[in-house]
Each structure stands twice: as C-alpha cells, then as structure tokens.
Amino acid sequence: MKKKKTGGLPLSRRVARRVEELKPSGIRRFFDLVVGRDDVISLGVGEPDFPVPWRIREEMIYSLEKGYTSYTSNIGLPELREGIAEYYTRFGVTAMPEQIIVTAGVSEGVDLAIRTLIEPGDAALIPEPCYVSYKPLVEICGGEAITIPTVPDFRLNYDMLMEYKEANAKILVLNYPANPTGVSYSKKELEEIADAVNELDLIVLSDEIYAELTYTGRHVSLAALNGMEDKVVVFNGFSKAFSMTGLRVGYVIAPPDIFAGMLKIHQYCMLCAPITGQIGAIEALKSLDEVDRMRAEYMRRRNFVVKRLSEIFEIKKPEGAFYAFPKISSTGMSSEEFAEGLLMKKNVAVVPGNAFGECGEGYIRLAYAVKFDKLKEAMDRIKEFVEEYGKS
Ligand code: PLP
Predict the structure, then answer these.
(1) CA separation for the pair 259, 72 (Å, rounded)
(2) pLDDT tens, residue by residue, 314-351
(3) Residues with CB under 6 A from ligand 1
(4) DSSP codes of every residue in 276-300
(5) How far, in Å, from the CA of 209 to the mean position of ligand 1?
(6) What pTM was computed for the model?
C-alpha cells in the first residue's frame, strides 16, 4: 500500500504552528451548543432577526431570473461603488468610487487590510473587549496583538493610547459602535483619538459595521476628521444594518497605497464578492427607510433590556449596535459558569464576556436582535437564574 504523504512531517505537525496555536472563537462554541434546540432562546449570535427587506429580495430574485450569476469586476459593480461613495457622505466622508473595494463581508475586508499592513514583528493596538477576529488575524500574519483593556467604561481615549507610545505599533483597530459593548464615540472624542493617532503615527482600521445602528445621533466616521483621510481604512457592510448576513457583502474605503495592496490579495483569494448580494446591496442603499424602521425597533429593545438588566446587574447603556454587556461578577460566578449555567438551567444562550478578551471576564454579552416577546421571556429567566443560583 502506498504510504500517505505528510510532507515529511509527523501527522501532528501538518497544520502550521501559527494556525494550530489559534484559539477557536468563544462565540462559535456557544453557538454549536444551541444548534437545533428549539427550546433555547438564543441571545448568543449577533445576527439580525429581521428578514432581508422585501424589495431587496425582489431585486435579487429578478437578477437570478435574468441569469446574472457571473463574476463581477474584482472591485465590485460600478453602480454599487458609486452608491457607497455617495452613501458614506452621511458619515462625513468624501470618498471616490476608485477608493472602494466591495468585499465578501467586513470579515474579508479586515483580513485584507491586516495582511496588507502587518509584517512579522509589527505590532497592532487592539482595545478590548472587542470583536473576536482582529487578534487572530494579526497573529496569523506574525504580528503582535497588543490589547488595551478598556474596563470599566469600555471607552478609548487619548491618554490610554499614549501609554502605548513605547510599543511603536503600526496599526490601531477601532470598532464603534462596538461589539460587544455598544460603545460609540462623539466627534469630540474622535478628535482626541485622532490626536493620539497622529502622535503615534498609526494607521487606523475603523470597523464601522454598526454605524447605522447608532442611537445617539448620527455616526461620525474617523476618516471624516481633518487629516485622517490618509490614515484610516474604513470598513462597513450590509450584514447588520440591512439584515443581509448570509449574502456576504461589505466594503472598504482605503487610501491609495493600502487600497492597491488589498486589491492584490482580494484578486487572488476572493476574485469578487457574490454578484447576487451586490445587486441586493445596490437596492439596499435606496432603502434607508427600512433601516430607520429596524433601528427604531432595536432601540425599543435596548431600552427594555437595559431597564430589566439594571435591576439585577451593573450595566452601561449601549449607544449603538444590538448588544448589552452587563457585569455579572456580583453573582459569584465566572463568565463561563454564568453562561453555561443559564443555558443548562434556563435555556437561554448568551456569550461569556471573556470570549472578547481577558478583560471581559466578569461580564456576559447578550444580543437583543430577537423578537420582543422572546426578549421579555429571556429577561424573566435571567432574573430567576440569578435569584436561584447567584450569591445572595
Ligand atoms: N465586525 C464586527 C464588529 C462584527 O460584529 C461582525 C459580525 O458580527 C463583523 C465585523 C463581520 O461582519 P460581516 O458579516 O460583514 O463579515
């Protein structure tokens, strides 16, 4: 019998060490526990519960009927890129369609940018708690992810950044409104952050995927501030605001040199974002009234969840996105004990705060992207759980 090829390495060493050393996502672990269980109310995964608005679906259906199933240009459909350039003026950015790459979700965009910018030994500053993908993507490139703990306010500011002067970092990853904390920034706060960015000579990856879901006025993009246009790569997409997660459409707005690098990788690894999703995205940009409707409902839920949770826990009122991040350490349980206990005893799924970084220990994340009656039931069950199993 022919011997199986292992590239000359023992079987256990076939996977690259930098990949083997990555930790699996803490969100996925909890997601897998609840798959196929109808009895569980899941506040676990950050996925909108609204269907894709009908007129967006219709455009995609027509496009399939017409047989539009080919590749598009690598950078995306011209009409979509023009639409995005115009749309982003609402967040203060004047971008040319030539600066925009349509990607397979923000996930691809962040990966492209990190691979374009990070060489082995380069450092990235990442405020924590944060979305799960930034740190692993930096590490896969051989970079050093330096995390900046932001508890208890979850806000980054000038002084905090300046403490990392000696780190000589190349990039800062910023996400606001933030997953998992819901924190967002005013123009004044962003101006302070921009001062530190200038002093530390950083390139900022600004993940603005929840920009539309801002409850305290209009989102301001960091790239809109004076002098920042050449230092910021903006990421946004259609997954959250337009409820289009599975259609995989996002985009980046990047300065020319970074754009050119990202495009090279995108050409080799993705070719283009899916055409059906891109056609839906063109219609989505004409359907902002649908976003207004969904935002109003998320805001109603946010107000309800904050009211109910603040009767039991310490909680900061989220200013955007659809997550609440209460402090549960008063129950005497760790984040994992709490999340596992709540799932086993009360059939409610949440994500332990430490899935978003070590400083998230003592917190849990709840996604309130579920129907109001389910949310009410979940709040009742959480209260019961704490009364029955928490430290009195
Ligand atoms: N960025 C943040 C902050 C997120 O919360 C998510 C998804 O939860 C993503 C990016 C991924 O978005 P996409 O579906 O566009 O890849």
Answers:
(1) 18
(2) 999 999 999 999 999 999 999 999 999 999 999 999 99
(3) 46, 105-107, 131, 175, 179, 207, 209, 237, 239, 245, 250
(4) HHHHHHHHHTT-HHHHHHHHHHHHH
(5) 7
(6) 0.95
